[in-house]
Amino acid sequence: MKILKKLIFAVCLLFLLTAGCIFYAFRIEPFRISVNTFAMGAEESSAEPVKIVQISDIHIKEDFTYKNLEKIVERCNRLSPDFVVFTGDLYDNYAKYSDDSRIISELKKLHAEYGKIAIWGNRDYGGGAVRKYQEIMELSGFTLLKNESMFITTKNGKKIQFTGLDDSLLGQPSMPDMTGTDAADFKILLTHEPDSVLTFPDSGHPLILSGHSHGGQVRIPFLPFVNERAVAATSLSSKYSGGMYRVGEEGKQKLYVNTGLGTTHISARFGVVPEITVFEIYI
């Protein structure tokens, strides 16, 4: 009888733990926001760093609406960014759910001292989004880059170069002419799918920012095969799935894979908290 009671208790406990994990994965973690900060460059410099805030993979849909975007915008603004960069995937499936006017209204509230820059993701092409994405981002105050570079000079005379590539799955990415870019004090490459850096080795950008992978959305301790399957579900992110990597022949370039703010496929996250990334660049 005692053994039976223990067994029943263990089964009940397992059921409660499982139910609790499922509730957390669907109702809590997807709506959290973590802020990860990295310093780069000559940190001994007496000058104030240039602060770049990266957001990615918002995936607006029925269960992640402008109200959730409002929280993201508020959190970004509290960071007082010099630049905001968005590395693609605004909507999850534009054909199924869109809310352009309210999304534009919220994105307009994002404040950056020198500018807001965006690139194309695969979801910005699919579901009919290709017809509206550029208009949405431009009305929201973003400069949308597609295989092109732009230069912005800060108040202390430092020239920052942003190069944005087209999406690698549904677009036609190519590196723009880099003639004359030696004048830049710091160069940043933006590409939605992280594994696409293998196509553009040693591009000369010390920092590469991407997204797309969501870190697999699910990372269960001690079950690496589950995590590998989760990451494998996303094309062009199997080699670089989340976090900071050294890339290029000599490892001089740093690739950061932002694990995103929204969800896709399933509206759940477990062990991969939605992320805003801050890069403090000392130049």
Automatic annotation (TrEMBL):
Domain of life, source organism: Bacteria
Domain Calcineurin-like phosphoesterase: 51-215
Pfam families noted in UniProt: Metallophos (PF00149)
Identification of the protein by name: Metallophosphoesterase
